[in-house]
Specification:
Layout (H helix, E strand, L loop, with lengths): L2 E2 L10 E5 L2 E12 L6 E7 L9 E7 L5 E6 L10 E12 L3 E2 L5 H37 L1 E2 L2 E2 L4 H29 L5 H25 L10 H8 L10 H12 L6
Parallel strand pairs: 1-4
Antiparallel strand pairs: 2-3, 3-7, 4-5, 5-8, 6-7, 9-10
The structure holds flavin-adenine dinucleotide.
């Protein structure tokens, strides 16, 4: 069963109002991964008017209910193997039993889930980074300019060595944070650092590697160009780099007091 993914927007306006043993949902969701094909979505909606950290709940929402409108499939620069939809809810009736956990705990659940989502994002990208470096090595070894492989330029093999070193450092951080998480620790700080570093390294690595493929790198025929497009999302999705920096600063107690 396919499900649409939920992330967190603190400015959520979608409301789920309890009427009898149902919630009546009105609002919308701009970014919904798998939204055009999902059977259900995990929706974060306001279930009361209380403070923003206590007024949200997670609701399992079947996508075939009357009033669920998939308005459009969003045209993106990358991540074409996964659709992203804008969805609206117009008086959608959902049984109250579809709530996930306790009412009003949605924000807390979402914050806990973000640790896993951000670690997953990093785990998902480190092997691809290895592969892109290896494919760049293979390509530049056989691509000769004036009888010399592109790889033999020190600027190229040193840069690839630097990038591989960065990938190994990121992998170590990922393993450390994952091991701590499995033992039951709060790893929000380390997971945010890993996600930040993963996004930035993906941008550096995809740009450098694509460069060494020359014109071939600018075609849609090689994986490096797809990685260049797809991996750009890493610094934006699941919380932008700046949001990660804010979380890290919070844990370092360096945010200005209001
Ligand atoms: C392909 C794709 C799929 C997605 N799928 C889902 C999904 O399934 N479910 C879901 O819920 N969401 C999804 N999202 C939404 C995604 O999580 C958001 O796009 C992301 O969190 C950034 O939020 P925003 O787009 O509202 O950017 P904004 O909040 O408008 O931020 C814009 C920019 O402002 C800057 N900025 C933001 N906050 C700060 C700050 N505190 N300090 C300094 N600068 C700041 C950053 O540079 C940021 O990129 C998806 C997005 C994309 C592009």
């Amino acid at each position: 069963m396919t499900h649409a993914q939920l992330l967190f927007n603190p400015g959520i306006k979608t409301k789920a109002v309890k009427k009898g043993d149902e919630y009546v949902i009105n609002g919308g969701k701009m970014w919904t991964t798998n939204g055009t094909q999902a059977d259900w979505m995990c929706l974060l909606a306001n279930t009361s008017d209380g403070p923003p950290h206590r007024n949200k709940s997670l609701i399992c929402l079947p996508m075939n209910l009357p009033g669920v409108h998939v308005a459009r499939k969003i045209n993106k620069i990358g991540m074409w193997s996964s659709d992203t939809a804008e969805v609206f809810f117009d008086d959608v009736h959902v049984p109250c039993k579809n709530i996930i956990g306790q009412e009003g705990m949605g924000f807390t659940y979402q914050m806990l889930q973000f640790q896993e989502e951000r670690l997953w994002a990093v785990a998902n990208i480190v092997t691809t980074m290895d592969n892109i470096i290896q494919e760049t090595i293979d390509y530049t070894r056989q691509r000769k300019i004036f009888k010399q492989p592109v790889l033999y330029h020190q600027a190229v093999h040193f840069r690839l060595a630097e990038l591989q070193t960065e990938v190994e450092l990121l992998r170590s951080l990922l393993y450390r944070a994952s091991a701590m998480y499995i033992k039951g620790n709060d790893v929000t700080k380390l997971a945010s650092m890993a996600k930040l570093k993963g996004g930035r390294l993906a941008r550096e690595l995809s740009d450098s590697c694509l460069q060494y493929w020359g014109g071939m790198g600018y075609t849609s025929e090689v994986p490096v160009s797809r990685f260049y497009r797809d991996s750009r999302l890493m610094s934006i999705g699941a919380g932008a780099d700046e949001v990660m920096l804010g979380i890290i600063c919070k844990y370092m107690d360096t945010l200005p007091k209001k």
